[in-house]
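Quick one, tokens below:
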């Protein structure tokens, strides 16, 4: 009789320990889930602009590439200080890139709004302007737009 009670107690202890391990594992892996969800590629304002841009670009045979990283458009030429200069472009993007069917870039576009009026934003914009100039890629900025303003972007092509 004593032997049966000991085995029953041992079984209950093992079951409680197993339950605790299972609860811990569930909690642990639940915390390891990734806190992401999908979101639209373009804001409402960017999409509205894209619709106007698309019509004019397609007339000229151009493609529109949205949200392209600067690191994908230009490379660092100073190999001695590569990481210093790469870090400056690695996390930045441009709103739209206009290219031909061979993906030869003609120009990049920034759709500016009131968020570009702060001093910090002006510094970032100035850096981006200078980087594009150094890379030999025209960077065009547009704030207020309509069909005429969009047509003007493509006038020289």
């Amino acid at each position: 009789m004593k032997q049966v009670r000991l085995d029953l107690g041992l079984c209950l202890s093992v079951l409680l320990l197993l339950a605790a391990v299972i609860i811990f594992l569930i909690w642990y892996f639940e915390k390891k889930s990734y806190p992401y969800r999908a979101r639209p590629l373009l804001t409402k304002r960017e999409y509205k602009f894209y619709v106007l841009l698309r019509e004019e670009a397609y007339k000229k045979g151009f493609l529109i590439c949205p949200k392209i990283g600067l690191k994908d458009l230009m490379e660092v030429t100073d190999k001695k200080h590569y990481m210093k200069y790469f870090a400056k472009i690695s996390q930045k993007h441009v709103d739209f890139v206009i290219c031909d069917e061979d993906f030869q870039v003609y120009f990049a576009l920034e759709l500016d709004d009131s968020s570009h009026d702060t001093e910090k934003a002006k510094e970032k914009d100035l850096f981006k302007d200078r980087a594009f100039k150094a890379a030999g890629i025209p960077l065009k900025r547009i704030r207020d737009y309509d069909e005429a303003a969009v047509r003007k972007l493509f006038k020289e092509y």
